[in-house]
Amino acid sequence: MPEKTILEARHLDKYFYDPVKFHVLKDINLRVEEGEFVSIVGSSGSGKSTLLYTLSSLDTDYEGEVIIDQTALRSLSNDDLARLRNRSIGFIFQSHYLLADFTAIENILLPGLKLGKRSKPDLLRAALEKMDLLGIRDQADKAVNTLSGGQQQRVAIARALINDPKIIFCDEPTGNLDSGNARIVFDLLKDLAHNYKQTILMVTHDESYQTDRQIRLHDGRVVD
Amino acid sequence: MRDSPLFKIVWAHLTGRKRQTLVSILGVMFGITVFIFQAGMITGLQNYFVEKTIQSTPHIQISNETTASEKPVAAKAYPENRDIWFSIRNQKDRLEEDKIKDGLQIASLLENHPEVYGVSPSLTSQAIFKLGVLDVSAIVHGVDILRENRLFNLEKDIVQGSVIRLETVNNGLILGSGLAEKLGANLNDNLNIVSPNGVSLPMKVVGILSTGLRDLDDQRAYSSLRNAQKLMKAQSSHITDISIKLRNIDKAPELADEFENRFGYRAVDWKEKNAAVFSVFKIQNIVTYLVILSILLVSGFGIFNILTMMIYEKMTDIAILKAIGYTDKDIRRIFLSEAMLIGLAGGVLGLITGLVISIIAASIPFRIEGFVSSERLNINFNPLFYTIAFIFGLLTTAIAGLLPARKAAKVDPLHIIRNQ
Ligand SMILES: Nc1ncnc2c1ncn2[C@@H]1O[C@H](COP(=O)(O)OP(=O)(O)O)[C@@H](O)[C@H]1O
Ligand SMILES: [Mg+2]
User: Do A82 and B322 touch (CB under 8 A)?
Assistant: First the structure.
């Protein structure tokens, strides 16, 4: 099977202007192939999060090209970017960002309902499947603030998975968890990559996590 | 709709802040209730007045109005633009000057006009009514009672006695109810009327009449035309006014002009005659709209507030919704819908309470003394007010929701997520 590039960055530069002009990303070139589990590592302040936001369409203020699934992000309107995120991108942040007004499964359904491609029963079945996979099926109808930190992060992963995205972007997904839960969450991500061919790009400062490939960032530059 | 995640979010937001939501709804409800009740009451009274006026007063009245602004006769003897001052004391409106010449012929000409429903000629004069020790000044309205009754359906307004006795009893007099009260006069009482010329006539009260129009009831007495002429020492052809009722009331101003030009006498239509009252009505209506506007403005601020607080509280929710693919428009719709739901709920409740209060108020006996007198509130249930109030309510809530909704739509998820 020929490799297919899901994500590509070409000559990516980014500056912050406040409080002073600051060259935060410097001529970044990278590719992530379909099914790859790639991590971006580097010390705190090296620009990992900033890079992840630019690659994932949340930050549109950069120079150079970002291409996701053969579409250059620069060519897309705000609404198109929202649609792209909905259809093709999953997010896992350090905080779970679950909506407190909803149950676990309702949170997971949110991107699916927005996409509107599947019928409600199909979507429910898919959500329960993902929850099963992540070991939280019995939490489906609970209010999210009654769940533990590890469970909440797994609900967030299920939400990222619900539309079968081309790529999942993670920013320190285990950053708020104790080491036990952190291990569980990382193993789940690895399982998704290896057994379900889920493409994942993960930012972490913890280099002990073994991924297919590491991209090392130092002072806004890819090194190695 | 119920399955829509947007609706669920809206619902969760509104039910998550029950007290504020309720207060906002009550604000809108209150504004609409007050408007419906106030507009219903005021225009009800206005309509009642108009209805009574159309029924009990001429649509057009022709009279030989002597205006004080007319130049003194002496002034006509001198050329204009001369620095000459005239001082004429007691310039008299002689009775003769009030007379409509050939009035009865004019009346019969008018009777044949296709737009005219009926005509009643009359002789009207100020007089003193004497009963016992009481002297009351009022107006004697000498009429052909059958013609007058055909025009104004006096029979319907008679509270004591009868209209026809004015024909049959020689010196019969029908008193307005307010005038009767002032005089302390009862049916079949005898009293004296003294005209400005000093003629005194003994009269007998054969009826008491209450039209509901204060001006008429307090001021007017009906006699036969013949007796009024006797009182004024006038001939049998002498009349001062012609009352006209039209088939189509809307043509009154236009026909008044026509009659004025044709006969050379002042013809006043009912709208012109009541212009002062109508301008009061106009002010009342403006006040009514100002009241609803100010109440809705306050509830609009309430809605603006609750939404602005909601947005701050739900900032991360908005950010993540945008990150997972909800568009700016979706977010705007969420907060706008919240405003509109508050408006809708407040609107419907306001319509219901407004209607209920109006129904209750309309059923309570309540004596009103104003331009018109009535035994109860005449409340206008015109659906137009209900529609206007509802639209007003929705409009304010929409406007109040617009700004916060746009603010929410502009939230930059990156900004929130980066700073967590
Ligand atoms: N909004 C911003 N404005 C200015 N500087 C910023 C902003 N966000 C991050 N930075 C700076 O950019 C650099 C990279 O930040 P970040 O990408 O968060 O690093 P990492 O995720 O690797 O810890 C840091 O020096 C940080 O202070
Ligand atoms: Mg970071």
Answer: yes
